[in-house]
Amino acid sequence: MTDLRIAAVADIHLGSDLSGQYRKRLEDIEHRADVLLVGGDLTRHGTATEGRIVADELHGLPIPVIAVLGNHDYHSDADRKIVQTLRDAGITVLDDDAMTITVNGVRLGIAGGKGFGGGFAGKCASEFGEPETKAFVRHTREIADRWRRAMKDLDADRTIVLSHYSPVKETLMGEPPEIYPFLGSYLLAEAADAEGADLFIHGHAHAGMEQGVTPGGVRVRNVALPVIKHAYAVYCLDGEGQ
Amino acid sequence: METPHYVAARVQRVLAEDDRTTELGIRVDVRGEHVFLRGQVPSEKRRRVIEEVAREATPGLRVHNEITLVEVREPGEEEHL
């Protein structure tokens, strides 16, 4: 049986003060993992300059690097520039789509994007009332719909969803419950459950917990740097598929 | 005197929106004339800047910087799912 070794981290929040620091921790990653997933909030202010710092820090690793953006990476309206800079540096950036890589003969599908909030079943916003409220909820629904389509089209033995926002409440424990609707949405979990993902990686909740599970049984891991407290976490999936 | 509850909310908003900080994860508690900052950041420089911005936002109050540094350790044990 072939194990897939998935390294994952989020919320690295790189800026000029941390330039070169994170890279040191990625040495020898190829001996520990087959792929590195980065779950958003790569920068602090979302500037093009910070995007270049992130690209410098993550480029040229001996294993594939797949990333999504987070809310901080949108702050300066330079998100498209950041995506392009990262792609030019050989980093795959998922933007509500999916990709497949073959690792040790196993086809690993990775789907996702930034995600968004809205809250969790029974305690969430709905598309009702003012246009601003509707737009907020619609944004998440449309993202979840795109993820479902992307996962449906995947031809893979194993599937991982990579997101910035959380699909469940469990991994938010430690954050004030009042802000849960800004930390994630059950619609993201519903998409992963419907299409049968094997693992859901996210960040965003710095004070949350690492482990959770979706209502449909998909394992969830919050890999925000302040949560995992290591340069990255490594999760092993057996490559036999479902 | 401004109600402590609103002072805390204002400082938290400033820390999120000021370009020098853009920190969403800092907890701010105000007790009388004392402002307590708590949370984790990855560098000493960020820790100092957060304190500076909080001080600017609360003239006349005493700011206690209880923010700690996140230590990014070498990767640990892998987890088999």
List the helices and strands and how they pair.
The complex is a heterodimer of chains A (242) and B (81).
Chain A: E1 3-9, H1 21-24, H2 29-32, E2 35-39, H3 48-58, E3 65-68, H4 79-88, E4 92-93, E5 97-103, E6 106-113, E7 119-120, E8 123-124, H5 131-152, E9 158-163, H6 186-195, E10 199-202, E11 211-213, E12 219-222, H7 225-228, E13 233-238
Helix pairs in contact in A: 3-4, 5-6
Chain B: H1 4-17, E1 27-31, E2 34-38, E3 40-41, H2 44-57, E4 62-65, E5 68-69, E6 79-80
Parallel strand pairs in B: 2-4, 3-5
Antiparallel strand pairs in B: 1-2
Explain briefly what this protein structure is.
The complex is a heterodimer of chains A (242) and B (81). By secondary structure, chain A is α/β, with parallel strands linked by helices.
What is the beta-strand fraction of chain B? 15-25%
- Note the run of SSEs of chain A as H and E: EHHEHEHEEEEEHEHEEEHE
Strand numbers in spatial order across the main sheet of chain A = 5-6-9-10-12-11
Helix fraction of chain A, binned, reads: 25-40%
- Work out the number of β strands of chain A: 13
Number of helices of chain A: 7
Individual helix count of chain B? 2
Biggest sheet statistics of chain B: 3 strands, mixed
Shape of chain B: elongated
**CATH architect. name of chain A:** 4-Layer Sandwich
The name CATH uses for the topology of chain A is Purple Acid Phosphatase, chain A, domain 2
Specify the overall morphology of chain A: globular
The side-by-side strand order for the widest beta sheet of chain B comes to 1-2-4
End-to-end gap of chain A = 13 Å
Structural class of chain A: alpha/beta
Cα-based radius of gyration of chain B, to the nearest Å: 15 Å
CATH architecture of chain B: 2-Layer Sandwich
- Count every beta strand of chain B, where a strand is a DSSP E run of 2 or more residues: 6
Mean pLDDT of chain B: 91
GO molecular function (chain A): metal ion binding; UDP-2,3-diacylglucosamine hydrolase activity
Organism (chain A): Sphaerimonospora thailandensis
Keywords (chain A): Hydrolase, Metal-binding
Protein name (chain A): Calcineurin-like phosphoesterase domain-containing protein
